[in-house]
Amino acid sequence: MDSVPLLIAMATLPLEDGSLWYETHGDGQPLVFIHGGWMNGQAWEPQVERFADEYQVITLDVRGHGKTGATEPNQYSIELFTDDLEALLSRLEVDNPILCGLSLGSMVAQEYMNRHPDHAAGAVLGGAVRSMPPMDLPAGMKPFMSPLPALTTTLSMTRPETIFRSLLVSIQATTGEQWLSVDPAVRSSALDAVGEISRREFRKVFGALYRYEPADLSHVETPTLVIHGEQEAPLVKQQGRQLVSEVAEGERLELSNSGHLVNQDRPDAFNTATAAFLDPAAQ
């Protein structure tokens, strides 16, 4: 029997101040993938290949990233990224989506669940982080400790990729681990994606990550799976455990031999865990 060709659509969603690039693959229950900071929808390629035969897989490039590129606002926020996600789901007439977010994308998924506590059919959060930095700070102190002024100065003299490399060195010195990825090819691809981001957009995305204040998710009824790599930063793992304890139905899984980009370091294991979570009867 001949295989059925995979339906792939590439399009843009007009916004008031730009346009959002997205792709849809296959047909079925909507499964929406939201990438991490300074990456793009191509980071989900192993998951698109695995799930597009069973689901309507939707990937997007968040503002400032990939083919969406720069948009007009001087300041980004996780809330704005979530507004865009809501607009895209409305455009595609998607009800009860399954959300799969990595890092920044996990924040967008959490904000969506906060707004719609029983709307999403499920959520898989890879490299899940609730705030940046991943620690509790005294109330009202975060704006006064902001690294954004120093970042602006540094960006005037060097490229985003160089700054990102410095961040990796700092995290590795703190954790003693290859935090971003244990796979040199995955790490190289991620750095290439960062290199495509302009200085202005890099700062805007960094600001969105830093300023985000996570909501209490105890009202969220969406079944949620948090997946961390073994070499994830300890404070991020701690936030993942907190997230799982808050939602009504939460599970947490840690995959060995993997870092923050757990879906690319261990794609088969990530896909297997996701499939079992979404449809345990099929396993």
From TrEMBL:
This is Pimeloyl-ACP methyl ester carboxylesterase. InterPro entries: AB_hydrolase_1, AB_hydrolase_fold, AB_hydrolase_sf. GO terms for molecular function: hydrolase activity. GO terms for cellular component: membrane. Keywords: Hydrolase. It comes from the Archaea. Residues 31-271 form the AB hydrolase-1 domain. PANTHER family: AB HYDROLASE SUPERFAMILY PROTEIN YCLE (PTHR43798:SF31), MONOACYLGLYCEROL LIPASE (PTHR43798). Pfam families: Abhydrolase_6.
